[in-house]
Design brief:
Elements: E1 2-3, E2 9-10, E3 15-27, E4 40-51, E5 57-59, H1 65-70, E6 76-78, H2 82-87, E7 98-100, E8 119-123, H3 124-131, E9 151-154, E10 158-161, E11 164-168, E12 177-183, E13 186-190, H4 197-200, H5 221-234, E14 237-239
Parallel strand pairs: 5-7, 7-8, 8-9, 13-14
Antiparallel strand pairs: 1-2, 3-4, 3-6, 4-5, 10-11, 11-12, 12-13
């Protein structure tokens, strides 16, 4: 932790920059477990630049619309490329030192090899599962997008830098992790589960009966619920991984 000229400890505060890459319109129930069927909802794929002292840090490895359209047959609109998004902050993919991987699904790692200098922080449970996935979810883990990366493997909650930690939040995947970021306005947590704001802040009247709504795609329903509750209880600022609102926001807070 840095010190001010008077010798007192000075807290490191970060600014989070959402970088929207691609937009996909899904049925809302794909995000909110067994709720809101028949309601279209635009989800956004992001990377997140964590601006602060020291290393250049991103959350997630990115994806592009061409891959989702051609390889996954998911109708998707390109917003910008990884390189275009980073350029707004004076960066190139080669400038990135660290990529924190929330999970190894294809839409969070497909562009990872563009970050040629980076080390990739991943949970051991997630990497082990991705290398030997269950057949029901194996298409979510194309090995060409994550094998050969420079992994830094962690187990459970771990501090990455002063004011920046990863938090174990399984359920959506076997070893998902969220990212806790100290900001000038409190602790922000980027959900490592694929969520929109409804998952962590249920609308009325659902909020009278449940504090969270599990995500629509998951590997363990109970773990997903508990992980969302963990995020909600610790965060001053909740950031849902795919919510469209962040496409219009340049910084948090």
């Amino acid at each position: 932790m840095a010190k001010d000229p008077g010798g007192k400890a000075k807290r490191t505060n970060y600014v989070i920059h959402p970088i929207p890459l691609a937009e996909t319109v899904l049925d809302r129930s794909a995000m909110t477990y067994r709720r809101n069927a028949g309601q279209p909802y635009a989800t956004i794929d992001y990377i997140w630049y964590i601006e602060g002292p020291g290393e250049k840090i991103l959350v997630d490895g990115g994806v592009d619309a061409e891959y989702l359209n051609k390889e996954r047959k998911i109708p998707t609109r390109q917003i910008q490329t990884v390189a275009e998004g980073l350029k707004k902050y004076g960066l190139t993919p080669a400038d990135i030192d660290v990529v924190i991987v929330t999970h190894l699904h294809h839409d969070h790692i497909a562009q990872a090899h563009d970050f040629s200098r980076a080390r990739f922080i991943v949970q051991k449970a997630e990497l082990d599962f991705a290398r030997m996935p269950h057949p029901t979810v194996a298409p979510q883990y194309p090995p060409q997008y994550f094998e050969g990366l420079n992994f830094q493997v962690v187990e459970g909650d771990a501090q990455i830098a002063d004011g920046l930690s990863v938090i174990s939040t399984p359920g959506h995947t076997a070893g998902g992790q969220s990212v806790a970021v100290q900001t000038a306005k409190g602790l922000a947590v980027i959900s490592g589960l694929c969520t929109i704001q409804d998952n962590l802040e249920p609308p009325e009247p659902l909020n009278k009966t449940t504090p969270v709504i599990p995500c629509g795609v998951l590997i363990n329903l109970l773990d997903a619920y508990d992980s969302l509750l963990k995020i909600k209880q610790m965060a001053d600022i909740i950031i849902s991984l795919h919510d469209a609102r962040y496409a219009q926001i340049s910084h948090i807070p």
